[in-house]
Amino acid sequence: MTAAEVPAVTVRVVDGEADLELARAVRREVFVVEQNVPEELEYDEYDATSVHLLAVGADGAALGTARLIFGEQARGLTGGVEGRVLLGRLAVVAAARGTGLGAELVRAVEAAGAERGGVEVELHAQVQALGFYERLGYVAEGPVYDDAGIPHRTMTRVL
């Protein structure tokens, strides 16, 4: 699917259990099935209090998702940096990759973070995705580390 072939896509904040199930299905497909992340590691205690974003096609099919952790929980996960929010669980189904949807989801998380007082975003990027995030203005920090058996690196961007 190319950008020209992607049907109209809507990115919205998850509203209700049905939307949350669609977001979970995307994460299951991308992380658990494709990348072999153990399901018990994919879903965590932050899911209940995070802002989740969902991208759906004109037909209602879930195409992508991302999550925002903010406030006290973000401070606890980002080393106590005031005003830093955490972007995570960014996933786009295989058929919609390369269409700009991932970047649209990142920008939607940034906007949601700014609305909640965020002035900087942190994310934990898979090493193979560093270039994607660098093109969106993120800068890698610190060493490579393992997360669920996949090499990652912390990245940040000032909003």
UniProtKB/TrEMBL annotation:
Chain ranges of the N-acetyltransferase domain: 9-159
Alphabetical list of InterPro entries matching this protein: Acyl_CoA_acyltransferase, Bact_Acetyltransf, GNAT_dom
GO molecular function terms noted in the UniProt entry: acyltransferase activity, transferring groups other than amino-acyl groups
UniProt cross-references to Pfam families, sorted A to Z: Acetyltransf_10
Entry keyword set: Acyltransferase, Transferase
Protein name per its UniProtKB record: GNAT family N-acetyltransferase
